[in-house]
Amino acid sequence: MKACFDFCVSAAIVRSSLDRTLTLVLTDQWREQNNLRNRGHVAMEKFNSEMTRVRAWSDTMEACERVLKKELVLQRRSIEEQLKKDSQPARDLDEYSASTLPFLTSKDMTISKTQVSERQGWLYMRSFTTKPTRAYWVRRWFFLRDGIFGYLMQGYRGGAVEESEKVELHSTQ
């Protein structure tokens, strides 16, 4: 996401610099060519005023560019911070309460806790990227069934869902 925003800011700067350079070169060439020709020609005077108008437009755009660049960078930072905040997992345990588990909401709630032998639901798992190493959170479907803890992930072949490595939990009772 940061690279995308960096590109947006850089693209605006390149576009502005290119506009300014092209305008300066073309208007300077036009003036030089105009000086070499007869100044009394009516068509040249008409185009001379047009080229002066284009140059004035470019000067105005350059003056406004600094303000626009500053606003663009501020908005980029604001959006980045909001995206970071939105992608972090919830710190409140109530977000992961039994109401988020689909199998509990579809069955009769009179079942005692000793009868329930499985749990499942969405949890966030921290993963890392390489070069530069950065942590990000991935939402996965975890399960606990008959003392085995694991999660489902996208399969490497064919796009099917596969189970991860399972961890067997031993009860102390």
Query: Major sheet: size, sense and barrel closure?
Result: 5 strands, antiparallel
Whole-number total of structural domains: 2
Oligomer: single chain
Spell out the helices and strands N to C: HHHEEEEE
What shape does the CA trace take? rod-shaped
User: Which structural class do the helices and strands define?
Assistant: alpha+beta
How much beta, percentage-wise? Answer: 15-25%
Mean pLDDT over the full residue set: 76
Helix content: 40-55%
How many DSSP helices?
3
* Count of distinct strands: 5
Q: Low-confidence parts, pLDDT < 50 over ≥5 residues?
A: none
What is the rounded distance between the termini? 48 Å
Radius of gyration: 32 Å
Quick rundown:
With 173 residues, this protein is of the alpha+beta class.
3D architecture notes:
The protein is α+β, with helices and mostly antiparallel strands. It folds into two domains: 2-87; 93-168, no CATH class. The chain has helices at 2-36, 42-87, 102-106; strands spanning 118-129, 134-145, 148-154, 161-163, 167-168. Strands 1, 2, 3, 4 and 5 form a five-stranded antiparallel β-sheet that branches. A hairpin with a 2-residue loop joins strand 2 (134-145) and strand 3. Helix 1 (2-36) runs antiparallel to helix 2. The model has no long low-confidence stretch (mean pLDDT 76).
Blueprint (SSEs and pairs):
Elements: H1 2-36, H2 42-87, H3 102-106, E1 118-129, E2 134-145, E3 148-154, E4 161-163, E5 167-168
Antiparallel strand pairs: 1-2, 2-3, 3-4, 3-5
Helix pairs in contact: 1-2
